[in-house]
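By convention, the token line describes the chain's fold. To illustrate:
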Amino acid sequence: MATSATASHAVRAPAGDIPPLHWQGGAVDCGACEYSSLRDQPGEAGCEPGHACLQDAYARRIDRFFRWHPELGDAQLGHPYFEVRAIAARHASVFRLAALVRDPDETVRLQVALRLPLAQLARLAGDPHREVRIRVAQRVEAAALAAMRGDPDYGVRELVARRLPLAVLPTMAGDSDRAVRMRVAQRLEMPALLGMVEDAEPEVRRIVAERLPAPLLARMVHDSDWRVRWEVARRGDTAVLAQLRHDEDPEVRRAADERRLPALSVACGAEQSPEGAAHG
């Protein structure tokens, strides 16, 4: 006789929780489940409709079922419900995951991207869904990562710029997206960094001004954005400060003066005669 979710077994679902519902709609029917024998097992050795159930539409209950029975992951990788396949993929053997690389649902492929061995991960680098490619960019090895520099999504390319080997990173200095170029500027080394002093975006140039060797900051004294010049004033040498003391922006002039005055005080102290110092 079929046993439904309303059977006498205790259900730990809290009051007001989502009612048990079969993933195809309708009531959960334990008698029709291939694991119906688990209903006779106590606690986490069994299953509970409304709490830990493979048939439920609610992903949290499916997840709890597999946490109780992780050994069943391999057997459910071909389940018709995508939530079951996705959660089963968290527990299945990594040697079985390659079969899901072309799964029709991105939720499943996302789980595969998180666990697939690195040697096979490049197979997902061209996945149609950005979230899958982002996970790939977070894990893939350097050789495959370089192939993702031209990804159509800026979020993917930004991750690539964070992880790409420095020897290859200059190839992304001309990326079309500001956020990507900002990440490049944060990591790029000389002399490639010098090539970004005329970037179209002030935020990128400001990062360059933060990292450029101080003797080269004179190239940015006349930058069109006051925030870039302020950064130059914060780090520039004496010659740079002399130019920025007359800058059109008051914040830039203040930054230049604040750095110039301590230098003048030290210079004046050095010029005092020994006699004067003795009488002080």
The CA atoms of residues 18 and 50 lie 8 Å apart. The radius of gyration is 31 Å. The first helix runs from residue 59 to 68.
